[in-house]
């Protein structure tokens, strides 16, 4: 359900107070059924609208609905309505609240500001997923948000990447982080700050005990420290490869997926006509597997210990799968 359409519906009702669902559907370029569903959404968000059946019926906005946002600038409206297009509020269980807040603003905001913001919704899209990544389901997120708001400890069921079953952990929540479309809970476990991927949380129980994390300050500071420690522990590995020029495009695409953040591939030509590339990569084992699969188009030259691992991996694969 698009927030900009709900706002257009409310704007029409704010100007006319009463209109038939067919008239609204024509102006919103949707079906009558969609208009009725949108009316239900506005009502659930606390906006005083209702529908009347029969002759003379239609969609009604009560006269008691008044707000004041006449000083809202075009840029301010665009910023607010752009946030409405994000999935974050819905993930947090605040979708209806966001719709209600924006509806109240749109009701008396200048017409030019609202129109500009609505147009922006058709021009800007925030897709938080990485390429080839499915949208993560985070049913535990609203409960975690409520525990944070209440300042309570939580007991969660958590299935780590290495485990096949969930284990219970009692945590002192610090905050929630939306990182490239993946939600993380930042919390202390036995006094140590850690991150927990919300899609792996299988259960949440809010405890009566108040949360008392030792880490003080905004979640941004704790997250930055945790992220810096992780990135330092997994420092990029510099490698040198040679590439068949005929396969350069395909090899560049494959290697770019493992390229360290902010880095670039340095290229020069070898006397034998192949291309020599130098680059820092994030996961050495992935490059070893790639070197086996992509040979001879891709040849790993340095470092020597990774080249030895490629030879060992190729020998193990041959022994395992055999020549047949």
UniProtKB/TrEMBL annotation:
Lipid biosynthesis recorded as keyword: no
Q: Which residues form the HTH deoR-type domain?
A: 2-60
Recorded GO MF terms: DNA-binding transcription factor activity
Q: What is this protein called?
A: HTH deoR-type domain-containing protein
Superkingdom of source: Bacteria
Recorded hits in InterPro entries, A to Z, give: CBASS_pafABC_assoc_protein, DeoR_HTH, HTH_11, PafC-like, WCX_dom, WH-like_DNA-bd_sf, WH_DNA-bd_sf, WYL_dom
Native organism is Tessaracoccus aquimaris
Key word Signal present in the record?
A: no
Q: Which UniProt keywords apply?
A: Transcription, Transcription regulation
């Amino acid at each position: 359900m698009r927030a900009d359409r709900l706002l257009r519906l409310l704007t029409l009702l704010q100007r006319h107070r009463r209109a038939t669902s067919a008239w609204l559907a024509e102006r919103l370029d949707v079906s009558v059924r969609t208009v009725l569903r949108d009316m239900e959404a506005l009502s659930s968000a606390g906006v005083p609208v209702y529908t009347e059946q029969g002759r003379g019926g239609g969609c009604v906005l009560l006269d008691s609905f008044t707000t004041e946002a006449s000083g809202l600038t075009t840029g301010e409206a665009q910023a607010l309505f752009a946030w409405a297009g994000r999935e974050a509020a819905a993930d947090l269980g605040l979708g209806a609240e966001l719709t209600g807040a924006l509806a109240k603003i749109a009701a008396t905001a200048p017409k030019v500001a609202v129109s500009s913001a609505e147009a922006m919704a058709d021009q800007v899209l925030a897709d938080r997923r990485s390429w080839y990544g499915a949208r993560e389901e985070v049913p535990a997120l609203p409960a975690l948000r409520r525990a944070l708001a209440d300042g309570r400890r939580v007991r969660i069921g958590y299935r780590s990447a290495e485990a096949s079953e969930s284990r219970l952990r009692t945590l002192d929540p610090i905050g929630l982080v939306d990182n490239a479309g993946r939600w993380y809970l930042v919390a202390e476990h036995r006094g140590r700050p850690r991150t927990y991927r919300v899609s792996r949380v299988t259960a949440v129980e809010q405890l009566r005990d108040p949360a008392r994390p030792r880490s003080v300050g905004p979640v941004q500071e704790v997250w930055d420290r945790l992220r810096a420690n992780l990135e330092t522990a997994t420092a990029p590995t510099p490698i040198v490869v040679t590439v068949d020029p005929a396969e350069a495009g395909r090899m560049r695409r494959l290697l770019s997926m493992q390229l360290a953040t902010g880095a670039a591939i340095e290229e020069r030509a070898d006397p034998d006509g192949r291309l020599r590339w130098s680059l820092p990569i994030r996961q050495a084992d992935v490059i070893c597997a790639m070197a086996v699969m992509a040979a001879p188009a891709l040849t790993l030259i340095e470092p020597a210990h990774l080249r030895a691992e490629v030879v060992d991996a190729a020998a193990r694969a041959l022994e395992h799968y055999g020549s047949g």
